[in-house]
Backbone:
């Protein structure tokens, strides 16, 4: 081989090694990130998921979190291991292709329940978004089946000239050749579905914000807190995933397939973390005591606030009592919370109306949503 050929082989070698290193490092980093986030939220998971009655959302949480962790670990093993046979490579690559969508669909079901609750358990909305999800799943499955049929599996990613140049290294890594552009079609139904869900979440946010402005202090303050939570979780989830899908399509169309795989690993982890934290954040909100000092200062009523048929709270109505415990007194609309106490020993339903239950009673509900207007109340599991 002359010097020009040697230089070309070395450039190909270093380029291949660089791509392989990027793939390996990204898969390992994604696995570490998923496990690290799970460790950070494990105490909340035990308190808000393990110690609560089992529900559909609990099942979806377990699928998203634990199946997701297993998948990213298997992906890391797939890209780091150098001793897999072709058969093992095929099995692991099949898991790598199909597995992430299990967590994606679990998260999407959680968000469907969230939207269902945000729209007051509207059957019309459910009749629209459920077939939409089924259509999205069908489109993704069809594309993946076509994509898998074009794949040819190998456990040697190095080009032939490099293998001849360095035969003693015996570097092997699971890989596959396929029509990579076909995989971009997966993001068409996914992108469209997330766009519709994002718009519906914005509509629900605007409606809830308007309802909060029309309510009095007691309900309005709770609704304002709800709007903040929806903005931080639901809207943020849809926006982040919407942007991630757009970036993924751009990378698949403009970069080598191996670099696109680098992004895929982090997309999977993003779905796992976002879905899990959505459940934990909303459950933490629902089991948080609604005390006076839990409302922003801007939500406090001015001295001249009008309470309609309700009387403004007098001084003795804010007497010291355990936070989260409401007592029914002579005033049917009086809530006796302690402004100085922010923590409660037991959770209660934060859309509770004062004076509706007996002295010292708690509502032990596993999955509830925040209050809405007086004419409707949301109680779907989220």
Residues:
């Amino acid at each position: 081989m002359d010097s020009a050929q040697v230089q070309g082989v070395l450039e190909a070698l270093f380029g291949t090694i660089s791509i392989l290193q990027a793939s390996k490092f990204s898969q390992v980093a994604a696995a570490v990130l998923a496990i690290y986030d799970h460790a950070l939220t494990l105490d909340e998971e035990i308190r808000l998921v393990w110690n609560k009655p089992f529900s559909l959302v609990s099942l979806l949480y377990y699928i998203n979190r634990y199946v997701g962790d297993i998948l990213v670990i298997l992906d890391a093993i797939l890209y780091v291991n150098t001793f897999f046979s072709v058969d093992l490579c095929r099995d692991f690559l099949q898991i790598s292709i199909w597995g992430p969508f299990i967590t994606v669909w679990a998260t999407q079901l959680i968000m469907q329940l969230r939207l269902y609750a945000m729209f007051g358990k509207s059957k019309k909305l459910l009749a629209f978004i459920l077939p939409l999800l089924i259509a999205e799943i069908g489109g993704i499955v069809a594309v993946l089946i076509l994509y898998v049929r074009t794949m040819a599996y190998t456990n040697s990613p190095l080009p032939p000239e490099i293998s001849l140049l360095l035969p003693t290294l015996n570097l092997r890594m699971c890989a596959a050749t396929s029509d990579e552009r076909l995989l971009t079609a997966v993001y068409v139904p996914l992108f469209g579905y997330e766009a519709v869900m994002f718009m519906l979440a914005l509509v629900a946010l605007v409606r809830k914000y308007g309802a909060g402005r029309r309510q009095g202090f007691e309900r309005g303050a709770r609704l304002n807190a709800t709007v903040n939570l929806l903005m931080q979780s639901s809207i943020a989830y849809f926006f982040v995933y919407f942007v991630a899908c757009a970036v993924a399509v751009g990378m698949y169309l403009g970069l080598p397939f191996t670099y696109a795989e680098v992004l895929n690993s982090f997309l999977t982890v993003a779905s796992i973390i976002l879905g899990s934290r959505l459940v934990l954040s909303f459950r933490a909100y629902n089991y948080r005591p609604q005390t006076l000092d839990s409302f922003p200062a801007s939500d406090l009523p001015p001295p001249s606030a009008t309470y309609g048929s309700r009387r403004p709270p007098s001084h003795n109505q804010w007497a010291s009592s355990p936070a989260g415990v409401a007592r029914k007194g002579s005033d049917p609309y009086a809530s006796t919370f302690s402004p100085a106490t922010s923590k409660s020993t037991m959770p209660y339903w934060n859309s509770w109306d004062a004076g509706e239950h007996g002295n010292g009673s708690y509502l032990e509900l596993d999955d509830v949503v925040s209050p809405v207007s007086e004419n409707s109340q949301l109680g779907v599991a989220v």
About this structure: Residues 18-159+169-286 form a domain with the Rhopdopsin 7-helix transmembrane proteins fold (CATH 1.20.1070). The chain has a mean pLDDT of 69. Residues 9 and 162 are 7 Å apart (CA to CA).
